[in-house]
Write a structure and sequence with these properties.
By secondary structure, this protein is an all-alpha fold. It has two helices and no strands. α1 crosses α2.
């Protein structure tokens, strides 16, 4: 999906493609929510995780905490 807003006909087309019935009275709401989700994901894509290891490398309970905090 491009940076352009999702139109109501596009929302209906995507829903139909996924096999989900989308009544006409819900198309505008679905398009608005999809646009909001897209804007949040766009912000997450801009984050620099640098040296953050992938999730499988995390071991719960092995964290070292600074006692002086």
């Amino acid at each position: 999906m491009s940076a352009a807003e999702l139109t109501t006909p596009e929302a209906a087309r995507w829903a139909a493609r996924a096999g989900l019935p989308l009544p006409a009275d819900r198309q505008a709401s679905v398009a608005a929510v999809a646009d909001h989700i897209h804007s949040v994901v766009a912000v997450l894509r801009e984050l620099d995780f640098g040296d953050t290891p992938p999730a499988p490398a995390y071991r719960a309970g092995e964290e070292k905490h600074d006692a002086a905090v």
